[in-house]
Amino acid sequence: MTLVPLKLQAGFYRNGTDFDASNRWRDGSLVRWRDGSLRPIGGWQERKTSFSTNPIRGAHAWEANNNTAYFAAGSHSELKVMTGAGVVTDITISGLATGREDAALNLGYGGGFYGTGYYGTSRPSTGTYSEATTWSLSNWGENLVACHYDDGRLLEWQLNPSSNAAVISNAPTSNLGLVVTEERFIFALGAGGNPRKVQWCDFEDNTLWTPASTNQAGSIELQTSGQIMQGVKTRGQTLIITDLDAFAAKYTGPPYIYRFDRVGTACGAVSRASALDTDMGVFWMGQRGFFRFDGNTVKELTCEVHDYVFDDLNRNQQSKIWGFSNTEFSEIWWFYPSGDSTEIDRYVAYDLLENHWLIGNLSRTGGVPRGVFRHPILAGHNADTDLYDHETGLNYDSGSVFCETGPISIGNGDQIARVTEVIPDEKTAGDVDLKFKTRFYPNDTETTHGPFNPANPTSVRFSGRQLRMRVEGDQLAAWRVGTMRLETKAGGRR
Known about the structure:
By secondary structure, the chain is mainly β.
């Protein structure tokens, strides 16, 4: 008899072939690792029903000078705020431009170039692309500032629940977004309809935008072939990311006010909400990879789930992708639509401390990290968009909490192995179920055994040259799983 420990590295591996994930975790959802042990993520509970009538595409949280906590979020057709007490106010400006809940690709008449296809064949995915509408939101002092992608005006809300957001006087129009710098300048991104232009107001005066020797207003057109996607305030500088490259803006004072340096190439952002700042730098999702700006240069992250994410991504809806920093667990999460979905239905996350990757299924269209509020607040996607407190409790609604390995070889050479017992390493016996899927050859049909509810030990009976182990967690249980061990004996040849 031989004890075979299933000691597996934390995190998911989902690149290459099925066998490339040997002795690694390959698939799962709503789980994470800490110090090598597998466990469920925190659950969620409803915070506010029917916050908005459409999926939110941008959110921000901040505190006013009187310590009132605010949550603001916008959909393609509205902008709303909620206090910490749960009072919701619609502050949508009158005449807000009509946006789009979904991105649109015009493949019909006028959407492409004449004579580029063959009659009777399907059209390729080329043509005029219109993004799903997103919001840029921040606070300037205690006031909310905002920019709707299709409307393009810079807006400000001064905390008066009886008044809607209003246009910032003298600010440029037809902007793509905004960011507020650490020095309290507002950067208008894609200012005035120029997708490469950054324009900023005077110091502490967001109504003065015309440069003069007596103020610090100014502008610059970035030397890039792309368009500005997003601005992110980070330590000591502001990062401007285009769909091709990245620039760092550093405050220098008069006469030039800001210096812009290119810090990365071939690192463009996949959407206007994919970049986020952490204590370890700015991270974002690109067109075919993930990137980090460490304060000096941009580097691509080694991603062990790259193929899984980018080979099954709905490119037509990639403008909906957004990310947030799950600060309590030192993780960065991105939510994205899979290849068969028009709405966000998956997430991919990176553990900054233990350097591994997480994947899973969850539909959340926007939200904010923990900080102003005790828990992250994320918005679901249903008939009426609800807000949820996350990382609290162990409720996952109908979500499946599981983790499954890639193929693990248990036979000895050409010999098959017969498994008779499982010796579980579990915090509380019975909080998970185990399934085993065996094969005799890599391309053979799998046979599933179980589920088994672990005892110490657990009697099983199956054989094969390789197996997968699937851990399915019980709802409302704070389970932990370590190194499972299989008791095997050699069998014959097959």
